[in-house]
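One-letter codes give the sequence; backbone shape is given numerically. An example follows:

. . .
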Amino acid sequence: MLKATANWLAQVDYDIATAEQMLHAGRYIYVIFMSHMALEKALKALVTEETQKLPPRTHNLIDLAQRAHVVLSQEQQDFLGKLNNSPPYTFFLLNGDMELNRNRQLLV
């Protein structure tokens, strides 16, 4: 394993731990954000190993999955697409344009 890959994976562990803490604290917007970051870094680790180069500077999970030659089921592709689009939604949520219902589902 390349050192760069190990660094990406260490960051993944940190981001997942942060997402778990935010979940316990009820900070759901940050759970989404940190989950996106963890998945992005995991994919960048795969791209690094696959190409033996540093991955591109992108937050696009779909692009990273393709570059890493990850084979995804339709359900996984759908989930990746939803998470891939989460940063703009979390921004609006933070600015009060959305709210959570009692079941912690986004209301647009």
Q: What stands out?
A: The first strand starts at residue 99 and ends at 100.
